[in-house]
Amino acid sequence: MTRLTFLGAARSVTGSRFQLSTDSSNLLVDCGLNQERDMQERNWEPFPMPPDRIDEVLLTHAHLDHCGLLPRLLHEGFRGRIYATGPTAEIARIVMLDSARLQREDVEQKRRRHEREKRKSPRPLLPLYDEKDAENAASLFQAGRYGEIVRLKGGVDAEFFEAGHILGSASIRVRVRENGSSRTILFSGDIGRWGRPIINDPHPCSQADYVLMESTYGDRLHGDDARIGTTLQKIVADTVLRGGNIVIPSFAIERSQEVLYYLNALLRDNLIPHLLVFLDSPMATRVNDVFAHWPDYFDPEMRRLISENRSPFDLPGLVLARSREDSKAINRITGSAIIIAGAGMCTGGRIKHHLVRNISRRESTILFVGYQAEGTLGRLIVEGAPRVRILGETLPVKARVERIEGFSAHADRDELLRWASAIRQTPKQVFVIHGEAPVAARFSDTLNKKLGWNAQVPTTGQTVELN
Questions:
Q1: Residue boundaries of the structural domains of the chain
Q2: Which strands, in side-by-side order, build the sheet including 56-58?
Q3: Would you say 358 and 347 are in contact if contact means Cβ atoms under 8 Å apart?
Q4: Cα(312)–Cα(260) distance, integer angstroms
Q5: CATH topology of domain 227-407
Q6: What is the pLDDT of residues 15-33, one digit of tens each?
Q7: 93, 81, 83: which is closest to 132 by C-alpha?
Q8: How far lies 358's CA from each of 14, 243, 260, 338, 366, in Å?
Q9: Where are the beta strands (DSSP E) in 291-370?
């Protein structure tokens, strides 16, 4: 009997974690952090199955909400293999180490603040895991490539397909053989977009009996990508006229690189002032280095730029802030600058310090270029909160708040339908995941009406039998 349990990303966007069990094996697909504020306590809950009984993990890609709980899984007893593409394995190590460091720093900061305010924390101030756990988890990776068949325990195998979301991202089809029959379960991961810079387009799978499909933008369209450069140009020019900074909360993986790609084009054509551009994210800087290791995963245009020595990661005026001292020095710069810093949803990292410095300045612009999950600081700012609490301070939001939707690495509604339409035979069952509850419900309805699929929205903890 094959059982599928939804341990995360069900009626929510983050915390991707799914357990696939047969009579002879237990498999996890993804093991990510919950990042929504009202769900972060789930990261501390015991794993439903003791980790030493999990045989293997398949990882779709290296974003924190997909890989961020792997060190804790290992700390609690997991000793199996973690299968992913080569770029995912390399980037996931960076992401997990960065997460461990940020947790340690956040715990120390909270402890000092609580001592200063003479109040107690509702639970012990401890990180979920430490850097040693992250390094140990990274040592368990087994790197593969798209199209390879990975043989797993108990008559199970897996195949990776290009998802087009970030470097090395994959959709994963798992085949289970039991009692003389077989069934295939397709985990979409995060689905990317067609025609985007840097990485290849999605390469959808054409057959699956069961599908778990993301729905982050399942009820909307992104609009015209051709306007990204024009919109970015206008935002930069307007902010420079006011004498402020352009502060961009950005995910270290793919999004920061894509922002650099567009800035490079604008600077090369002299369409924006030649400002200093600070990439204030040690993780993004290390990820830039990883990109250089995997040119085979780039799209033809990116490979052409590199062959002509025009890499967008080498744009004029780019300053890589590797140390904390480098980061602090940014605030001593006079005049306008572009500051790209993580985390993309403003949930931690150096972006918080730049927000403290700029969010109450009418001259500055806070520019969002990625999805902001419900309950995150970024979502509060985007939705127009008049005041926000950052690093223990409550600050008025006076800076301009802008958003460019076209930067999204997630497929929109029509692109999701394009991906789904590649599956030639109607699946037996489709589970709509990775979307806020109303969005997932609307996209489930879209799949039912447009494709005639039997789609439903599961709940966290729900188990279904795949007969």
A1: 3-220+409-465, 227-407
A2: 141-144, 81-85, 56-58, 26-31, 17-21, 3-6, 463-465
A3: no
A4: 6
A5: Rossmann fold (3.40.50)
A6: 999 999 999 999 999 999 9
A7: 93
A8: 28, 12, 21, 12, 8
A9: 318-320, 338-341, 365-368
CATH fourth-level superfamily of 3-220+409-465: Ribonuclease Z/Hydroxyacylglutathione hydrolase-like (3.60.15.10)
Task: Pick the closest to residue 157 from 177, 139, 140 (CA basis).
Answer: 177
- pLDDT confidence of 131, banded at 50, 70, 90? very high
The residue with tokens 């008025």 is: 396
pLDDT one-digit tens code per residue, 324-370: 888 888 988 888 999 999 888 998 888 999 999 999 999 999 999 98
- The structure tokens 């979301």 sit at 165
In the predicted model, what is the mean pLDDT of the chain?
93
Q: Which of 133-137, 215-219, 303-307 has the lowest mean pLDDT?
A: 303-307
Do 221 and 413 touch, CB atoms closer than 8 A? Answer: yes
Instruction: Name the nearest CA neighbour of 395 among 407, 385, 404, 410.
Output: 385
Nearest Cα to Cα of residue 186 among 166, 164, 210, 169: 210
Digit-coded pLDDT (tens) for 425-465: 999 999 999 999 999 999 999 999 999 999 999 999 999 99
Sign of the alpha-carbon dihedral angle for 92, 197, 199, 312: negative
Task: Give helix 282-293 / helix 86-117 axis angle, nearest 10°.
Answer: 180
List the helix and strand counts (H, then E) for the chain: 13, 22
The pLDDT, as a whole number, for residue 123 is 65
